[in-house]
Write a structure and sequence with these properties.
By secondary structure, the protein is mainly beta. Helix content is 15%, strand content 51%.
């Protein structure tokens, strides 16, 4: 009788484990992807500089829950003489069943081969939902937002 009861308990435990694994919902996976959208920069004088068709690459890093973001060919003001590529490394992310939440603070961006501490990224908050990347951050003293289209 003890063997039958023990066998029944073992079988019930395996069935219970299988149900738990089956019931776990898949979280949104972060993959290398390029998003295209609109960038809006608050010029801190009551005006905004907007740039359309901005390309932003998102690349997860190996081994941790961070990603790197590269903004391609961007200008942050009409007074900027050239467009540049700016990289923001070490953006933290968490995945849920519906989206990816992004965050970061005190990240020194890289552009034109070097660091730009005067434009340290603060208050970075964003999401990736249904193939759309949206984020806001302060770059130096300039708040900006980016919203891609699907």
């Amino acid at each position: 009788m003890k063997i039958v009861l023990l066998t029944a308990l073992v079988v019930a435990a395996f069935v219970s484990c299988e149900k738990d694994e089956d019931q776990k919902e898949a979280v949104v996976e972060v993959v290398s992807e390029t998003y295209v959208g609109s960038l809006s920069v608050n010029q801190n004088d009551g005006t905004f500089f907007t740039l359309d068709s901005v390309s932003v690459e998102v690349n997860p890093t190996d081994g941790d829950s961070t990603l790197n973001m590269i903004m391609r060919g961007v200008k942050f003001s009409s007074r900027m003489p050239v467009s540049l590529d700016m990289t923001v490394n070490g953006i933290a992310y968490t995945s849920t069943t519906t989206n990816v939440s992004l965050s970061g603070n005190n990240i020194i961006p890289i552009a034109m081969g070097g660091e730009f501490p005067d434009y340290t990224i603060t208050n970075y908050v964003g999401t990736i939902t249904d193939g759309v990347l949206s984020f806001s951050m302060v770059c130096g003293k300039y708040p900006l937002t980016f919203t891609s289209t699907k």
